[in-house]
Specification:
There is one protein chain. By secondary structure, the protein is mainly α. The protein folds into two domains: about 350 residues, no CATH class; about 110 residues. The protein has 18 helices and two strands. It has a two-stranded antiparallel sheet. β1 and β2 form a beta hairpin.
């Protein structure tokens, strides 16, 4: 099944950036600036998650806390890899990213950017700890679903397998944070009950008086951990958003990793082709036979293209996105085929196919260093601004009592561990959800459910449940409006 791709380039005159004319170059800059703006808003929206405990326990002065948190958020993005970013990019199947009309790609990008930034600012204004992860993912899903409603659209507009994995991660993480914090509080109380530390840990901090040095050290350490892992997870969402913009608007330059040598991956395409040729098509259904044939054609085409190209820049500009599409379709189709019992290959061959397919994905699963740096600066700077509204909610309004040292340390320790594990698995998780649920769990562990402030918890839950449907509808509607006038 031959797939074709055409990108309508602008006339040679008036080209400014990446072979775009002046108007599209300005729009690209606006979109990239908006992506940085989203991450900036994410920073001051989520600062409370890291600094509320050290501020309300008098462990650090507020501005010291936010500057410290901002620095570790910056490092988290810079050193956290791109696994979560790739997960965000893959929510929209690559086939639906690109249109022959570049204005349509910009319509998609602007719709999800405006929606994500608007909802983040709205919830921040009302002091509600709402999830930036839900906001961004809901916006992407809304645009993808709206794309599928366009007349003549036959392609899958959302990778529902990826969406299911992300949705499960976002659903389980707050439940995990809530329950594990209760368990940790119980264990800590039992271990320190007959020691000199018991009273200090579970009493309300004295006004304007810092805790003992060892408690202060623990709380600063947990604040640092949450800040770093917040950067490594939430920061990657900004990286993924910026890559969606770059791949959607200028695929010739960002569809493939410019630093990799295509010829070095030729062996992977050859091995895939050789193994796939041995698969007997007779037991397969007609759709699966077509998929098998497609894999054969793609692996052959990739082998020829990669072998003939010393560098990515030597691949024809109009073909670079074709190569990206081929690699991603090959990976997705292979996973589907290998899950069918009718496909008879040995365990060793399955492992080889998965390994070589993963090797090919190195060309598509990447982000330029300057993108990571821009997002690092945006998140780190945003962390230092606008923190007061949500810090007050997290520190004072979730429970009916002042946050104790034990509650702050347990909630942040659980949050840092959960976010760190999720980042390692390449899954986006909501720092807001995990930490807020951890604080709620610590309040319940102290005096039961009656210790929660019903109004605040109701508002937070309402925002959590409303976020996805509201931003999906808003992003989808904006996309259809922008598309109709572009």
């Amino acid at each position: 099944m031959q797939r074709t791709f055409t990108l309508r380039l602008q006339p040679a005159n008036n080209r400014v950036m990446f072979e775009l004319d002046l108007s599209y170059s300005i729009l690209l800059i606006v979109c990239l600036a908006a992506a940085c703006g989203f991450e900036f808003v994410n920073g001051f929206h989520d600062t409370a998650n890291a600094v509320a405990t050290v501020i309300y326990t008098n462990s650090l002065k507020p501005w010291v806390a936010v500057i410290w948190s901002g620095f570790w958020n910056f490092l988290g993005v810079l050193l956290g890899g791109v696994g979560v970013a790739v997960g965000i990019i893959n929510l929209l199947p690559v086939e639906s990213l690109i249109d022959q009309n570049i204005a349509h790609s910009i319509s998609m990008v602007m719709a999800l950017l405006i929606t994500a930034i608007f909802w983040n600012l709205l919830t921040w204004y009302f002091g509600i700890p709402c999830s930036s992860s839900h906001t961004l993912i809901g916006s992407i899903l809304g645009v993808g679903i709206a794309y599928s409603l366009l007349p003549g659209s036959t392609q899958t507009a959302v990778d529902w397998t990826q969406a299911e994995k992300i949705g499960l991660s976002l659903l389980i993480s707050p439940l995990f944070g809530f329950s594990l914090t209760i368990i940790l509080m119980f264990v800590l109380r039992r271990l320190t009950r007959k020691t000199k530390y018991g009273d200090s840990l579970f009493k309300e901090p004295k006004k304007n008086q810092p805790p003992p040095l060892w408690i202060r050290s623990v709380l600063v350490l947990t604040c640092t951990s949450v800040s770093y892992y917040h950067g490594s997870n939430d920061g990657q969402k900004g990286v993924g958003l910026m890559m969606l913009i770059l791949i959607g608007i200028v695929p010739s330059y960002f569809a493939l990793n410019q630093k990799l040598l295509p010829s070095s991956l030729t062996g992977s395409a050859i091995q895939i082709e050789q193994i796939v040729r041995t698969i007997d098509p007779d037991p397969l259904s007609e759709p699966d036979r077509e998929k098998l044939q497609e894999v054969n054609e793609i692996s052959k085409r990739l082998k020829e293209t990669l072998a003939a190209s010393a560098t990515v820049s030597s691949i024809d500009k109009d073909q670079r996105f074709v190569v990206r599409k081929d690699i991603m379709i090959l990976d997705r189709t292979l996973k589907d085929l290998l899950g069918k019992k009718e496909v008879r290959v040995s365990d060793q061959e399955k492992l080889t196919l998965k390994a070589e397919s993963k090797s090919l994905r190195k060309m598509t699963d990447y982000s330029p260093r300057w993108v990571v740096l821009l997002i690092s600066i945006s998140l780190g700077t945003g962390t230092m601004i606008g923190w007061k509204r949500i810090v007050k909610t997290v520190g004072e309004k979730i429970g009916k009592e002042h946050l104790t040292y034990a509650q702050g340390a347990c909630a942040e320790l659980v949050a840092a561990s959960t976010i760190g594990l999720s980042t390692n698995f390449g899954l986006p998780v909501s720092t807001t959800h995990v930490l807020s649920s951890g604080i709620a769990g610590s309040m319940v562990a102290n005096k039961g459910v009656k210790n929660l402030q019903a109004d605040t918890v109701r508002n937070i839950l309402l925002a959590w449940f409303l976020t996805l449907p509201v931003v999906m509808i808003m992003a989808g509607t904006l996309f259809l409006i922008f598309r109709s006038i572009s």
